[in-house]
Design brief:
2 domains, Rossmann fold, three-stranded antiparallel sheet, Pantoate--beta-alanine Ligase, Chain: A,domain 2
C-alpha cells in the first residue's frame, strides 16, 4: 500500500517509524511527472532499502524568473498510480507553503562545483536544489537517496553537500535512462513537438560521436568536445554549453584524461535539454 502524506511532520514520522521497525529508508526525491527514469530510481531504492519514500515537489526555489516553473507538468494522480504499481511505501507531496512558510529565509550553498556548466547559465538554481534537498534529507533522516545522473552536476553537488555537512545519507547516482532511439528521458521532453523531438536526437548523436572517437583512441578533450558541439549546434536552436571536463571537479584538467565528462545544455524552441556521458566509464548512449 502506498500512503500519501502532505505535511512535513507526517513525512518525518513515517520515516522514523520505518527505521524504528528496522527498515532501511530509500529516498527518491522528484518534482513529479514521473517517467521510466524516475521508476528506475525507485527500482534502485527497492534494491537498497526496504521502505521506499518518493517525494514529489516542484521546488520554486530552483527556478529563476522566466524559467518554466508555471508550466512544469504537475500530474499527481498519475504519479501516485505509478508509485502504487511499483510498491512505493510512501509519497510525500507537500504544498509549497508548508516547505517555505512566509518567514522562510535560509539557503544552503555549495562552493566551486556549483559554478561551472549549469551554474554559469542558472546561477541561482543549485542553491534552490541544495536547500530543498537539505530539507528533504532532514525530514527523511538516515537513508539512501537516489538521483539520476542525467543531472550529473546536481548528483555531484549533492554528494559533496552530504559529505561536507556530515549528513547521514548515502547519495546514489543512477544511470541515465534513454528512449530506444537514445533520447534521455526527461519530464521536459513532453514540451517537444514531433519535429523538435526528432531534432533533439542531435544531442545523443553528438555524444555517440565522442564515444566512438574515444573508443578509437582519441583523448584530446577539445577534439572530443568539437565532435559533439558540431552536431548539437546544427540541430538545436541555441547552445548554452558543450563541455569536456574532469568528472570529479567539473572543470578542464591538465594531461591526458582517463575519464572525461562530456556535458551539454541546449535549447530546442522553448525547451532546454541537458545530457551527458562520462567517457571511459559509461556505456555508449
Ligand atoms: O532532480 C530533480 O528532480 C530536482 O532537482 C530535485 C532533486 C527533486 C530537487 O527539487
Amino acid at each position: 500500500m502506498t500512503t500519501l502524506v502532505r505535511k512535513p511532520a507526517d513525512f518525518r514520522q513515517a520515516c522514523d517509524d520505518a527505521r524504528a521497525a528496522s527498515r532501511r529508508v530509500g529516498l527518491v526525491p522528484t518534482m513529479g511527472a514521473l517517467h521510466d527514469g524516475h521508476f528506475s530510481l525507485i527500482d534502485e531504492a527497492k534494491k537498497r532499502a526496504d521502505f521506499v519514500a518518493v517525494t514529489i515537489f516542484v521546488n520554486p526555489l530552483q527556478f529563476a524568473p522566466g524559467e518554466d516553473l508555471d508550466r512544469y507538468p504537475r500530474t499527481l494522480e498519475d504519479d501516485l498510480a505509478g508509485c502504487r504499481e511499483r510498491g512505493v511505501d510512501l509519497v510525500f507531496a507537500p504544498e509549497p507553503g508548508s516547505m517555505y512558510p512566509a518567514q522562510f529565509q535560509t539557503r544552503v550553498s555549495v562552493g566551486a562545483i556549483t559554478k561551472p556548466l549549469e551554474g554559469g547559465f542558472r546561477p541561482t538554481h543549485f542553491d534552490g536544489v541544495t536547500t530543498v534537498v537539505t530539507k528533504l534529507f532532514n525530514l527523511a533522516g538516515p537513508c539512501a537517496a537516489m538521483f539520476g545522473r542525467k543531472d550529473y552536476q546536481q548528483w555531484r553537488i549533492l554528494s559533496r553537500m552530504a559529505e561536507d555537512l556530515d549528513m547521514p545519507i548515502e547519495v546514489v547516482g543512477c544511470a541515465i535512462v534513454r528512449e530506444p532511439d537514445g533520447l534521455a528521458l526527461s519530464s521536459r521532453n513532453r514540451y517537444l513537438s514531433a519535429s523538435e523531438r526528432k531534432r533533439a536526437l542531435g544531442l545523443v548523436s553528438g555524444l555517440r560521436r565522442a564515444c566512438d572517437a574515444w573508443l578509437a583512441g582519441e583523448r584530446n578533450p577539445d577534439a572530443l568536445r568539437s565532435l559533439v558541439a558540431e552536431r548539437v549546434q546544427s540541430s538545436f536552436d541555441r547552445v548554452d554549453y558543450v563541455a569536456a571536463v574532469d568528472p570529479e571537479t567539473l572543470v578542464a584538467s591538465e594531461g591526458t584524461p582517463t575519464r572525461l565528462l562530456i556535458a551539454v545544455a541546449a535549447h530546442m524552441a522553448t525547451t532546454r535539454l541537458i545530457d551527458n556521458v562520462v567517457l571511459g566509464e559509461d556505456p555508449r548512449p
